[in-house]
């Protein structure tokens, strides 16, 4: 069964409560919290996403899927562990060496959250292999991180497929999350490639009926 993690990056300010309740009713599996620090990526959503995550924590029991697009991973783990997220994902490219990757993995585990590692489109999938035994989810960016509403990069599909094959041959229990440009036109290809958690922001938030889209993405 495929799960859907709705990115609230482009959630309309002023109608947060209505959007959150509607997404809950539409049975999103997670809220995807896109944390950007204005350094690792150009946009800075840090404080807004922290406020949203705290708010969702207060009004919903659905799990938070926190995607850290930040340079200072340690600080962001500390800041966002306060909302007890289900998953905290950081970028491999934000770490200077293996030791730092393992430090972040352990920090997230100490917060009782599942560990995700994300790689940007230009990062080879093999770079993540050595960490797979220690993590719960691999997040494959299907767009350049930094903003919503972009077009899915088709050559990321073979990257997902390669990762899925590797995980299968290694008998690992790891979720593959795809993130960026996922909509009614692209979701089938992404699932066929092997992703089992789909992040969608624009495709869902722009719809008049969230449930129609979320049901379609889950098929
Ligand atoms: C991009 C974010 C994605 C993005 C998804 O940096 O990580 O989660 O918000 O939005 P859509 O679905 O609009 O591509
Ligand atoms: Zn994201």
Overview of the molecule:
- The protein is of the alpha/beta class.
- It has one domain: Aldolase class I (TIM Barrel), CATH 3.20.20.70.
- The protein is built from 9 helices and 8 strands.
- The protein has helices at 16-25, 46-59, 73-81, 98-110, 126-129, 156-169, 187-193, 202-205, 210-218; strands spanning 3-7, 30-36, 64-69, 87-91, 114-119, 137-141, 175-179, 197-200.
- Strands 1-2-3-4-5-6-7-8 form an 8-stranded parallel β-barrel, surrounded by 6 helices.
- Helix 2 links the parallel strand 2 and strand 3.
- Helix 6 (156-169) packs parallel to helix 7.
- The longest helix is centred in the first third of the chain and has 14 residues, at 46-59.
Helix content: 25-40%
Termini, distance in Å?
Answer: 8 Å
Largest sheet: 8 strands, parallel, barrel
Radius of gyration: 16 Å
Strand content: 15-25%
Class of secondary structure makeup:
alpha/beta
Task: Give a brief description.
38% of the residues lie in helices and 20% in strands. It contains 9 helices and 8 strands. Helix 6 packs parallel to helix 7.
